[in-house]
Design goal:
Order of helices and strands: HEEHEHHEEEEEEEEEEEHE
CATH topology: Jelly Rolls
Helix content: 10-25%
Strand content: 25-35%
CATH superfamily: Ureidoglycolate hydrolase
Distance between the termini: 20 Å
Largest sheet: 6 strands, antiparallel
Number of domains: 1
Structural class: alpha+beta
Length: 220
């Protein structure tokens, strides 16, 4: 049975389809991982103070990487490759941009949240219509793999307390580039990025404008 939160989100957001991450629709973007217990890492994340406004992201958080879950993620999700576990948390309601990696990303919902997801193959000549994105609701405690072909960005909150999402990736991802690259969409190591055309702040930081039409906002 679908949660009251998901049903309420659908009532308040008639301009975008919002699915459960447990739905078949999510299988085109990722999968839910059932055999990883997130209890300890969620408890650790909840002790980290959230910003009053805006969102923050750290690629690597030592408090997470010393936990037993870190080796389980490294072995089962990244095939024994060196990995990092970071944290994205704070306040956000907008699509704003889309990034992708040449690897899956593991997301652990520290709070209930919504992910706005698209497909890299829908980018044509560096552009994508925002109508190609779909929204997925993740209850607190959900452990999800987001595939490398899935466009994603900052999670959206579903209440005024904000959101928290643990983020695991191969080591070095989302860190500054060491050298210039011909592909201007490469924004950080293993991070390709396009901004919504209305996101002046991100474009001013060097992101390429690539998402057109509505900049979806998740209401709650």
């Amino acid at each position: 049975m679908e949660s009251k939160t998901l049903l309420l989100l659908r009532e308040k957001n008639t301009d975008i389809n919002i699915y459960s991450a447990e739905s078949d629709e999510f299988l085109r973007f990722g999968r839910i991982i059932k055999n990883i217990d997130p209890t300890e890492i969620i408890k650790t994340a909840e002790s980290i103070k959230a910003p009053d406004t805006g969102s923050s992201y750290v690629p690597s958080e030592e408090k997470f990487e010393c936990l037993s879950i870190a080796s389980q993620i490294e072995n089962e999700c990244f095939g024994n490759l060196p990995s990092q576990i970071g944290y994205c948390w704070g306040h956000n309601q907008f699509l704003n941009a889309a990034e992708w990696h040449m690897s899956s990303e593991i997301n652990i919902a520290v709070t209930p949240l919504v992910l706005l997801l698209g497909h890299v193959w829908d980018i044509k000549d560096g552009k994508i219509d925002s109508s190609q994105f779909k929204a997925f609701y993740l209850p607190k405690g959900t452990v999800a793999e987001v595939y490398s072909t899935s466009l994603h960005f900052c999670p959206c909150e579903v209440n005024k307390e904000g959101f928290g999402c643990v983020v695991a990736l191969p080591e070095g991802t989302n860190t500054p580039l060491d050298k210039e690259c011909e592909n201007k969409l490469l924004f950080r190591k293993n991070k390709w990025l396009i901004a919504h055309e209305d996101n002046a702040a991100l474009i001013a930081r060097g992101a390429i404008s690539g998402i057109c039409r509505k900049n979806y906002k998740i209401e709650y």
